[in-house]
Amino acid sequence: VTDFIAGSAAGFAGKLLDYPLDTVKVLLQTQSVGANVDSGTVLNKAASSTTLIIAETSPLGQPRVVYRGGLHCLQHTINTQGFFSLYKGLSSPLLGSMAENAVLFLVYNSFKRLLAGEFSPFNNAEQYDNIINNKEDLTLLQLSIAGAGAGAVVPFVLTPVELIKCRLQVQNAGSNSGFRTYKGPLDVIAQTIKTEGIANGLYRGNSATLMREIPGNAAWYGVYEGVCKLMIPEGGSKADLGTSAHLIGGALAGVAYWTAFYP
Based on the structure, what is the number of domains in the chain? Predict the structure, then answer.
């Protein structure tokens, strides 16, 4: 229960912080998707927004890039649509992130307990208690294996959440009709199951997500735990680390995850 609650809280806080940047990422990835229209303009849907961005076309009739980069995209979106436009469509990813991180925490710590020997008839009770209470740790290889195990489970929660998020963010790209394919997250689920089914619809791309999450979480937890180990004071334990050490470890782990497996 503690792992589940801690994971949910972490997912909630993390998504509130990173969602504006995720919106910028999707806007950059989907810009210039629009089709040419008359008067030398192109309509390009601003991913998670309901407002159309008008961009000039080049002499060859190709849509010009609307944004020069991440900072320009962020500034343009805030100036034209307001700061809270960066949070449009947040509800589904927020709930999804809470569920994802709850599963990650729960499964990761379950694998740690398994590797610590909780279910072994030869279990050393004192060593097990020390590991679980962060006074003694598993090897980095064991921790990476636990991370990979968590990564093998979480896609079954994450894949539908990401599909819903992406379809809401990019719906109607390039359309000037104002017609919206989906009314919201529940409508995405209903329409997807009705027209595509569950396996080929909601879980489309699950294999690719598995290929990302298994090594990705092995890298994330391996780097996180490794950085934390380096910051443990002499003669101390992981339990002695402050919040800043965990933040640094998490930040570097995130860099490792996305740098290695972003494609």
Answer: 1
